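Forwarding the complex inputs:
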Amino acid sequence: MAECHPVGFQWVMEAKDRGATVIHVDPRFTRTSALADRYVPIRAGTDIAFLGGIVNYILANELDFREYVLAYTNAATIISEDFRDAEDIDGLFSGFKPDRHAYDSTTWQYEGQPTLTAGGADTNNQRATAGPLLHESHGPPLAAGDHRRDETLRDPRCVYQILKRHFARYTPEVVEATCGVSREAFQAVCEAWTRNSGRERTTALVYSVGWTQHSVGVQYIRTGAIIQALLGNMGRPGGGILALRGHASIQGSTDVPTLFNLLPGYLPMPHHALHPTFDAWVGSMSAPDQKGFWASARAYATSLLKAYWGDAATADNDYCYDYLPRMTGDHGTYETALSMIDGTVKGYFLLGQNPAVGSAHGRAQRLGMANLDWLVVRDLFMIESATFWKDGPEVATGEVVPERCATEVFFLPAASHVEKEGTFTQTQRLLQWREKAVEPPGDARSELWFFYHLGRIIRRKLAGSTQARDRAILDLTWDYPESGAESDPSAEAVLKELNGYEVATGKPLSTYVQARDDGSTAVGCWIYTGVYADGVNQAARRKPGSEQSWVALEWGWSWPLNRRILYNRASADPQGRPWSERKAYIRWDDKQGKWIGPDVPDFEPTKHPEYRPPEGATGPAGLAGDDAFIMQADGKAWLYVPSGLIDGPLPTHYEPVESPIRNPLYGQQANPARRAYQRPDNQLNPSPPEAHSDVFPYVLAVGRLTEHHTAGGMSRNLRYLAELQPAMFVEVSPELAAERGLEHLGWAHLVTLRSAIEARVVVTERITPLRVGGRVLHQIWVPYHWGGQGLTRGDSANDLFGIVLDPNVLIQENKVGTCDIRPGRRPTGPALRDYIAEYHRRAGVTPERRSPIVTTDPHRED
Amino acid sequence: MDRMGFFTDTSVCIGCKACEVACKEWNEVPSHGLNLLGMSFDNTGALTANSWRHVAFVEQPRPAPDFLGMPGSHPPGQNGSADGRSDFRWLMMSDVCKHCTHAACLDVCPTGALFRTEFETVVVQEDICNGCGNCIPACPYGVIDKRENDGRAWKCTLCYDRIGAGMTPACAQACPTESIQYGRLDELRERAERRVERLHADGVPEARLYGHDPGDGVGGDGAFFLLLDEPEVYGLPPDPVVTTRDLPRMWRQAGLAALTMAAAVAAAFIWRSPS
Amino acid sequence: MGVRTWLGSWPVYRQLTGSDPLGLGAAAKSARSKELTARTETADSVARSICPYCAVGCGQRVYVKDGQVTQIEGDPDSPISRGRLCPKGAASKNLVTSELRQQKVRYRRPYGTEWEDLDLATAMDMIADRVIAARDATWEDVDSDGRPLHRTLGFASLGGATLDNEENYLIKKLFTALGALQIENQARI
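Prediction (whole assembly, three chains):
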């Protein structure tokens, strides 16, 4: 956190000053470790084993916050008798379909529950469309009715007991053998975390989004969520799970998605087979008689279509539902890049993103772009993704020859953050408006300008069209006020549309509860409703932090409804009293008959804690006064996830897809449901039980430096940043340096089946060899900021990685892999490909080779 | 006017180098060049004319008794248990001009380019400096430096322009963890004493102040530090002494030899006794 | 410069005639030093902004003089950042004013070996034509069972995590209306 988010780290330092204990778990000793009370080195890719060990510690010693767990989690809920755990099937859960490497989730459900996820019980469709991403704002649907619970937590089929059995083998010894973490260090973490949680104290879990870049990334975070829910750290001040994101508005670009499978506010992009009609589409979002706020999904969906298509969207035409394009499977960025290589994609826009450096398998990214008809790059600086045809690594190897590369490239300079106005959504869902300081220079324009005018030109060119396909673009509401010499569209008008308004009067809505399913409201992004309440840009509020409470409700605006801590109803006990005065936040005030506190209550403001829903109540009325998790269909935090995940209802340790060691816990080596692209140009390094994993004996971990930014476009071009970290380097331990003959500040190169990159060697004791499973394992660390452009240039770490994805959200595993490292510089020119071919030969990898997915031991299956 | 200064508390420094960048942005200091130095994460190297803040990084392995941590001292990684280096320490310190009470640079400056401001900070005036370079060897800390292609001497001004406007110097303004604190020197010294006491009570006996003592060889620094190890570890002189301590005596002799020197001009320097 | 002014600018003269006979303080103050003010004090305007790097969302104040950004520093009012910035945030002025920033449209024709100049309006028109053509060439009306698809997989987009919500909204709205699906950003990566 000190390394990548130094200014956020001031609050960690503040907490430390007040007596907080800071523990840092990381494969390498970073600037965060330097300030932590305890640093725990860990083998990259083993976080579920580590955190699962903590779950086991909590459950084995009954250290959970029992009152919280019973009231606010699904610990007592009874699960289907057909469920079989990964412990029973050597690392697979019940319902696995080996032919598709996907699950039928029917047996995972609450007892008596039908499966209601958007893709049905078959997780194959959900995987292709990254379905679980929908649940960033709300839980999956559940049918109405109460679910059988055992408040004593003794029923062997209740979630608590299932959890206990599942993690029982995650002992300190197993943690040590898997993660390379000593029993002493592990015990210290367990004790610190549990001791600092409960009624009087809370513990925060903070991760950076490198955690998501694993084939089991979602389940990493799930394991953290289980710990935090068991210890009562959710919805309470000083608790929670905090994701630190690397881009200014990466939260915003998920809420208002530029993502293939989402529409604004986490509404699903329709699927051709699952959502042939409007009713099927909205029906998939929530069960007809569902409890909780997500029951109003139909109003959010209708209001979005009204925002898109205005007067053309009527009840008679299902609000232009048929104008929406339909998914048929995976249309994610990696599928798209490979489709470019295969020639089915003609054109590509890059908007402040640099896949030649920032995406896994840089060579595949560049070869894909070299096979396009046209490419539009919009950026501040000339980035590698714009110049691949001229001076990219494949030009050096002869794989791309400028005179034979047909891609037409448009480079359009972009406006910087001070040359346009608009909102970023930062990592805690806070929208902050930026004022425009100056006009952009030369041809530089904002994306708002570019897309508004591109849309205007396309609509003009298609104006006379009679083709059915053009109705959607011609009927689109696209009439934003323009101003200035360059006819800039009004960002504030777009913000108002995001907020939503009454169609008849244009009056802005103040809460999403006002959204209607009859076409009388238009809402661009329902979770942002309220940001323009009363016609006021609430995101522009700037009351100084020193002049308001520590929650600072009058600085910017956070979704939903300016709530700063999600699910903060859980900060009070079931009766509405603070768990402790020390940790008081939201409480029920009987005199006023409402919830009060320093934050906006994340609950119906006047719902009494003892409210119990009448028989058959649906929607928000179906939630009891102590159902704190209001976006969940049962109002509970899910320790066990009956639906909505692709790779199992519980996290379970799988090795990274590229790993030098065999899974110590199960025959199943790696995530059996991972999204794999098995093709000759995407071979992954062999891992046990496959032969030849010893060709790539080292664990490769990748990360960031304070002095640089992601793929480097915004830092390698800046003289004051470039000089602070002026060269691509690789960190190795003194032991590995001795083993491989690497010299401090000399050159070394790293090799995988994709490519080889070179870097200057930094020998440092901040990297420590680990003893794992009876052998010494070396880890190697490289930053991924470098590429062929900018003031400081170097090889790109992401060229080392192949493409394999987490099945839930289709994010790639490029924070861990395997590699070889050798002293000296890598071969150049065509010799580089020959060198890689030699590694393929040594690893026994032919173009036809397919990595084994299911690796369970048949003798261990029941 | 109160004496203003910096207290740099290295116990909370995260080595982010925001101070280096903020200083350069505000003062329009040129780039110091692209050099991978291999000195941990320090690629700036030293305080120079083109780096007025410099973050030093010190990697201190404190191996467990059975783990020597030396390459080749045992089969690689054999003793490499996960906690083998958990006692590892990574010290970071943002160094800066000390704005000495007795500033030799100022004493030896023949043009009056160096002067003491109303905040008792020491500033080189770029419109006066003629690049004679006398100040450079005079600095006991090796701070002040001549800029190539310019010839003049440059160093931290404690953001003379900003503090004159009641603002905080750029480095202290940016510092995420308040490792760099700006304020009245007497207040900073009190704060620093309390911080050391707190660290000692918290089990950090090695915490100590550096440059805070008016009785030291430079009469105390306007920019002083809380360190977690000996000054030498950070590249600081353990016992800095103003290099012009003996200057009055030297100048008397020189004055006798140089009878043609204008008396008023000579006096301007002779009278600069740090006593 | 008159003799008196000239003489007055000579430090020795100032020292001997002023209240600072040691010549270390006010008497040594140069003309520049006397007139020195923080450039933030003389800015024409100050914009309240947010750092463009990571998602902590630190407040920035952007000082402008004569239409140019003269300083970007932390906004002390921000309850998130309290006026502080990391090295990247502190380098924001360099980001905005860098001479390396591209300010003109660049065009590489198919099989070209060098960049060429291109007028922005022409570029916009050419891009619109290519979008329409790619869409026409790859349009899919229905699937093999006759269910609606109403889409194109002929062009794609990547980026948005560094952009504004309003921008992401228009990107998604326009591409969705064009039937384009492969709209992605860093959140997937």
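Chain C is about 30% helix and 20% strand.
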